[in-house]
Amino acid sequence: MLVLDGERTRAALPWGELIDAIAAMFAGECVMPVRHHHDMEVPGEEEATLLLMPAWVPGRYAGVKMVSVFPGNAKRALPAIFGTYLLSSGTTGEMLAAIDGGELTARRTAATSALAARYLARPDAAELLVCGTGRLSLNLLQAHATVRPIKHIHVWGRNLVSAEKIAAEARELGLPAKAVSDIETAARAADIISCGTLSSEPLVRGEWLKPGAHLDLVGGFKPSMRESDNEAIRRASVFVDTRAGAMKEAGDIVQPLKSGVLKENAIKAELAELVRGTRSGRSAAEEITLFKSVGAALEDLAGAILAYETVTGRK
């Protein structure tokens, strides 16, 4: 059985190929039950979360990701997310690979945002704001820069030192990034705003969004979590990775639906419809678009298959 640690997983998932693999999986016939979501008590700290995400392509591959999210790890200088992906044969059930789940999650999440941006961000989008300084942030920088001609990148976080660290790492990769302390000023100028935080209160205000802006929300995965406000929902054309997941788990969608700010039929499309061409994405240069992602098991399966086939040379 192949075992891929974080470094080998990262190397096996180059951005262009990963984005294309996820697009192909959304367009294909993957079977994807709604993920299992369990809250876990951590004495003296915020609750942790256990996620189990199965998916399979009949006759080809099957897999499941087990992920834990411990917000309290920030105080321990540890990543909030740990996990493992188990990939097996869809013909025999033979276990094929164990893949680092944290690295897989970070890269497929960012790649899915970039895939959505292909349809929703302006083709000339050049200024990117990334909100958050966790594991996702550097991945989001790289992924968005793969699909749009990004010339300026701002990184905002509650801790400016952490934002400066991410910006420095991005510059080492050749990306034009710098840290900022004023989120409003950066958001008002941004063509793409990508949020990857664990915030329970809105960070980005709809009034800050300029005509033609694209707002990418990937951090929140519970109904109680939120990265944008109601005005952002009112002003934007709303898209999601999957309706089933977003309308159940995403606070940025669940809360506006509950309050009546957003109607279910106002969600323009889910990502599979954009990829398949059955629904359209951005329709005008001045349109404001919003994409909410909670993660889909097929994204993990696509990344796991790509990593396995890249390393082994099997197809």
TrEMBL record:
Keyword Methyltransferase: no
Signal sequence interval, chain numbering: none
Enzyme Commission code(s) on record: 4.3.1.12
Gene Ontology CC, one term: cytoplasm
GO molecular function, one term: ornithine cyclodeaminase activity
Keywords associated with the record: Lyase, NAD
Entry's family note: Belongs to the ornithine cyclodeaminase/mu-crystallin family.
Stated name of the protein: Ornithine cyclodeaminase
Organism of origin: Rhizobium sullae (Rhizobium hedysari)
